[in-house]
Amino acid sequence: MIEARDLTKKYGSKTAVDHVTFTVQPGIVTGFLGPNGAGKSTTMRMILGLDSPTAGEVTVNGKPYAKLVTPLSEIGALIDAKGVHPRRSARQHLRALAATHGISDRRVDEVLELTGLSQVAKRKAGNFSLGMGQRLGIAGALLGDPKIVMFDEPVNGLDPDGVLWVRQLARRLAENGRTVFLSSHLMSEVQQTADHVIIIGRGRILADAPLQEFVRAHAREGVLVTSPDAGRLAEAVTAAGGTVQAVDHRERISVTGVEAREIGRIARDNGLWLAELRDESTSLEDAYMHLTAEETEYRAGVPTGSTDTTKEAAK
Amino acid sequence: MSATTPTDTTPSVEVVTHRAGYGRAVRSEWIKARTLRSTWILVGFALLAFIGLPVLVTGETTVTDPAEGAVAAMHAIFTASDFVLILVAVLGALLTTSEFTTGMARNTFTATPKRGAVLAAKATIASLFALGIAVVGAVATWFALGDKLSGAASLDFGNAEMVKVLVVSLIGYVVTAVLAASLGVLLRSSVGTIFTIVAMQLILPGILLSVPSDIANWCGAILPGVAASAAVNTDPIDPGTIFLTPGAGLAVLIAWAVLPFLAAMAVLRTRDV
């Protein structure tokens, strides 16, 4: 379990993490979601005691990181896949880490096997692809058979095989009762793996909820129809299996369960007048984008009016 | 590389872990140092210079007094120290700077959160390499010089002055290694650290000791290399020249390891990795 209370990190006048409070529970996968520069990595570095908080505190299994006697058996972290000496072999890199805890060479070979690196264990880490580097980082994280695993952007630069592998690994670790904490800037990624999401933007927690709850609260579907023949159209749509809700205006109805295109066809077939037909569905990606829009620090200058293109891109 | 499905994440046997402290940090640092080819290239060049230079420059002895001869012989063995110490410094500096330049520091300090223990372990490994180079180099040089160190110029381990030259030289090697490792933590830059050591060892003594300024002379006199020669000096000091007494020289030499080490310790504990 990771518990952060009022955790704050300032770099000069810039606040990277702003009074963040959250708990990461064991037995589930928690996704830590936010745009680049939102404070995810800084938060993770503070969890590991690499950066000291300006205010507040964070504990790992009830203790500040520096007080852990055998940190590698409490929490295994992948913070930066490039954080390895490029001219040391993968196996020797892991042996050096293992030596700090008196972990056997047998365990080193086991994590190499587990991450599929046995064949390349003698190669220099600097010659590794980004994907192999990520695996080496994960191998290091698993060395001490930790109760918590924390991966910062673990699927960055991985091929589809690798992405699937990380997802399965995360699920498996959580099923074993471990605390799994993964950061990502992609909603779609977290959606596929996490049970719980913590969303951060500009250093502040914007949402902290079970994924299902977040989906219910934020992902809507529905088609907004404006028609002078609303009453008859509602009947026809209901007959086609849709659910119709009345909206404030008497000419307007909201339809779920039938797509906009289909509603248009129903209207034509019944000779009904359609004044407006608008898809109001929002995907989780849209909800996340909307939530973090104001909080995104480095926003691309998207000209107004091209929102449709961004929506397409997000899908 | 095929992506194997993670079949089972639970280890086949329980993973036994032990307290992450200084002792295990030393073992970890030893693995790190010996698994880099650059370490052994530096050791190789250091030994080559250590042995090669005296062999090239030492002539037949002209001394007749065995006491004086023994001291001169020991100095002859350590002829190449000015150069070898630079290589020792590079080795010591790389132990710490490479952590920061490669990002390995994040792994190192998550594995051993006691930062002081990590620095102490690095200083230990740097010192062991320095001592190893000095001892192996000195013994090899002794053999290599052969006949040139015979007769009145033989080593005599009953000669206190000669033993003192040996001990102070070895201390100088350890001091340089610890100083370089500590500076590496303070500067986090290989080039900066190595340049600083080269300046202190080779450039500054000549300048500071020759300019007509007391302050500059004092600064020169307390440089590690100058302090080391003061520590083994047996000639009377001319009144008016600024030069440390042997006792003060030794103290200043040791301070060059202790003070930067303490400063590095303080900085390491407070600065973010």
Q: How many helices of chain A in DSSP terms?
A: 12
Measured by DSSP, the beta-strand proportion of chain A falls in 15-25%
Summed over residues and divided by their number, the pLDDT of chain B gives a mean of 92
Instruction: Please summarize the sheet with the most strands of chain A.
Output: 6 strands, mixed
List unreliable stretches of 5+ residues of chain A. 304-315
Structure description:
The complex is a heterodimer of chains A (315) and B (273). Helices cover 36% and strands 24% of the residues of chain A. In chain A, the strands form 3 sheets. Chain A has a 6-stranded mixed β-sheet, sandwiched between helices. A 4-stranded antiparallel β-sheet of chain A has the order 11-12-10-13, covered by helices on one side. In chain A, helix 3 packs across helix 4. Chain A is elongated. Chain B has 273 residues and is mainly α. Chain B contains 11 helices and no strands. The interface between A and B is large, with 59 and 46 residues.
Give a brief rundown of this model:
The complex is a heterodimer of chains A (315) and B (273). Chain A is 36% helix and 24% strand.
Task: Record keyword descriptors for this entry.
heterodimer, A: 315 residues, alpha/beta, four-stranded antiparallel beta sheet, 24% strand, disordered C terminus, B: 273 residues, mainly alpha, globular
Layout of strands and helices, then pairs:
The complex is a heterodimer of chains A (315) and B (273).
Chain A (H helix, E strand, L loop, with lengths): L1 E10 L2 E11 L4 E5 L6 H8 L7 E6 L10 H4 E4 L11 H10 L5 H10 L15 H13 L5 E5 L7 H16 L3 E6 L2 H7 L2 E6 L2 E7 H8 L4 E4 L3 H10 L3 E4 L5 E5 L3 H10 L6 E4 L4 H10 L13 H8 L1
Parallel strand pairs in A: 3-7, 3-8, 5-6, 6-7
Antiparallel strand pairs in A: 1-2, 1-4, 8-9, 10-12, 10-13, 11-12
Chain B lengths: L21 H13 L2 H21 L8 H12 L3 H22 L1 H8 L3 H31 L14 H28 L2 H21 L3 H8 L2 H8 L14 H25 L3
Helix pairs in contact in B: 1-6, 2-4, 2-6, 3-7, 4-5, 4-6, 4-7, 4-8, 6-7, 6-11, 7-8, 7-10, 7-11, 8-9, 10-11
